[in-house]
Amino acid sequence: MGLGGCGKQKYQLNFDGYGFESKKTSYAPGDTVTVYYGMIATDTDYHFSCDDDVSMEQEYDNDHGYVFTFSMPEHDVTMHVSSRNSMEYDPGANFSAETPEDLEAEIDEDNLLFYYFEKEITAEEDSDYKEYKLYEREEGSGSILTLETRNGGAEHRSCCLVPEDTWTYCMNIVRNYGMADWKDGTGLRGMYYSVAFPDPAGNMISASSDDMPEDGLTAFEAVENELSDAWMQYHQPADQDNTSGENGDSADAGETWFCPECGQKNTGKYCSDCGLKKPED
What we know:
Number of strands: 17
Structural class: mainly beta
Number of domains: 3
Largest sheet: 6 strands, antiparallel
Strand order of the largest sheet: 13-12-11-10-14-15
Number of helices: 3
Radius of gyration: 23 Å
Distance between the termini: 68 Å
CATH architecture of the largest domain: 2-Layer Sandwich
CATH topology of the largest domain: Mago nashi protein
């Protein structure tokens, strides 16, 4: 819808998705429109588009991220963004020979850097939940502890080492969505989300789905994607105990089993998907 008033008629610039920035929200026909998109996650491919009759130029620089320019037509314009995670699992990327139990035993709660929590809101007392706890470690790495229940079952725990920039990416999402300033939000039915992170003074503060703006769910999804991608990339089930048989083969080699919790096919001592220990025969 065009905006009337004195001078040239102006048309609205709309954004379908978080992360876009522009100096103005409306432009006169022929005005040069410049839009920035700086909410960039690791291992993610982005696709941008707008109205078919708009000729849009796209560039990238380190200060602003993606930069778009086009001439405003005689109608409102909507810009769209879609993303796809491009991370592929690389078994060689695991840089720890420690078991998940060993890593969890080394955790110092005072070194908590970031916390993510989600839970189904149902009439059942034992509704499913998922937690990610990101901790600081020495030597340029961090550790992620996951805690999860599925279908009302027992809690599963697992831990792995991740690169230290995992925390940086999570904090970029927090800043881009202004999560530290959320208050008096619209809330959410059926699910509850929260994150905790340090403020500039180093004190842990939190933001929840009770406080989020109307489209704030996208922020929680971005954080969960970042943490789950890191966990999937670097998690190594404790299925290597260096125990060999007479022929030098692993004692567990060739013994395939299916996880009773999630159905994943495995050959080691722990489920490669949910971390459940192989049931005793």
